[in-house]
Amino acid sequence: MNVYPTRRAVVLMALGAPLALAVAVAAPGLWIAAAAWIVLTVGLMVADVVLAPPPRRLALRADLPATMGAGRSGSARVRLAFEGAAPRRVELAVGEDERLAVSPRRQDVTLSAGRAEAELTLSPRRRGRGRLEGLWARWRGPLGLVWLQRHETPEQAIAVTPDVEGVKQQALQLFARNAPIGSKVLRESGEGSDFHALKEFQTGMDLGDVDWKSSARRQKLVGREYRTERNHHVVLAIDTGRLMSSPAAGLPRLDRAINAALLLAFVSLKMGDRAGLFAFDSRPRLASGMASGPQAFPLLQKLAAGLDYTTEETNFTLGLTALSGGLDRRAMVVVFTDFVDSTSAELMIENLSRLMRTHLVLFVVFRDEELERLAEAEPNVVEDMSRAVIADGLLRQREAVVTRLRRLGAQIVDAPAEGLGPALLNAYLDVKRRGLV
Length: 437
Known about the structure:
Layout: E1 2-5, H1 7-26, H2 35-51, E2 58-63, E3 67-69, E4 74-82, E5 89-96, E6 100-103, E7 106-110, E8 115-124, E9 128-130, E10 132-140, E11 146-152, E12 158-161, H3 164-177, H4 180-183, E13 194-200, H5 212-218, E14 222-227, E15 233-239, E16 247-248, E17 251-252, H6 253-270, E18 274-280, E19 284-287, E20 291-292, H7 297-305, H8 316-325, E21 332-336, H9 346-355, E22 360-366, H10 369-376, H11 382-408, E23 411-415, H12 420-434
Parallel strand pairs: 3-12, 15-18, 15-21, 21-22, 22-23
Antiparallel strand pairs: 1-11, 2-4, 4-8, 5-7, 5-10, 6-8, 9-12, 10-11, 13-14, 16-17, 18-19, 18-20
C-alpha cells in the first residue's frame, strides 16, 4: 500500500510547532504535553487511512491499440473500477517512454458508482515497440490528510509501424484525382510515351503529334494519340544513416521518408509499374528486388517497417554503386537522404551523377524549416544575429547542392516534411506525363 500525507496534513503538523514552543517556554515542566499535538495529528492520519477505500480494491486497466502508425495520433482508454466504497474523485497520471507521447499526462477523473473511464491521446514519436511506463491513480481519504495510491504497469506493448493507414488514405485521394493517368489516353507525348491510336486532329493538340502521311491519305489532319507507359521500374532508395534519425516536424526524417516511399509504392503498383525498396547507410541494408501488382504492397510495407535507426555515417559510394549494379534496365530512382553542407555532399553528388547517366533520379529534399525560422527571425540580441547568419549560410549551401543536382539532370522534390508524400507523388505523375523514364 502506497500512503503518504497530503499538503493539509503537513500544514496541520506544522501548526503544532508554535504551540509546542509556547508551552515549552511558559511551562518547561509540561513540555511533553506539546507532543500530544503530533500524536493527535498522526492519529487523524491513521484514521483517514482506515476510513478511505484501500488501493487493493481498485482495478486499474488500460485499453491500448495493438499497432499505431508513426506520426498518426490515436486514442486509448484507462478504466477504473472500485470494489465497494469509492472516492468521488481520483487523480490519474500516465508515464510515457521515448517512442510514445501521452496527452494529458495528468488528469482528474470523477467516478460514478465507483467506476470511471479516462481518455488518452497517444502520439508515436518513433517506430518500434512503445509502452506506457506506468499508470498511477491516487485519492484522498475522507479527512483529506493522506493520499492513497495504486500503481500498475501495462504489459501490452504498442507496435509503432509506418503510417500505412495514412498512406492509403492519401494515395486513394490523390490517385482518384489523377485516375485518368494510365487508364485513359493522354495527349502528352515524349520520349518513352506509348503510341495508342490515331484520331482526328483537334484544337489544342500539339502540331508535333500530327501524322502527316496518314493525314495525306485521309485528306484531313490526323493526330497521334498517346497514353502513359506502364511497367516502369520505380526504386525507392532510402538512406538510413545518422542524419536521417534527426527530427523533421516532430518525426525522424527516416520515418518521413518511409511514409512518402510507401505512398509512392502504393500508387505506382496500382498504376501498373514495378516498385522496389533499397536501403543503405555505411553499407547496403536492404534490396527487395522489383515487385509488381497491388498484392506486393504488404511485402514492401513489412520490409520498410524493419528499417531501423542507426548512428553510422552514410557511405554513398558503396550504397549507390550497389544499387546501380542491381538494376538491369532504366529505372526511376527516388533517393531519400540528407546532408549538412556542400562539402559533405560532394561524394553524394559524384555518385548520383554516375547513377544519372543511366537512370532518372528523383532527389527528395527535406526542407529544413527550423533553419528557415532561424534565418528569418528578427534579431533581438547579438546571439540571434549570429544564429541567423549561420542558418542563412547553411541554407545557401543546401540550395547550391540542389542547384548542382538539378543541372546534372535530377528531378528535385522540395517540400516541407509534412507535405513530402503528396509532393513526391505529384513529381512521379509529372514524370509519367512527360515520358521521362
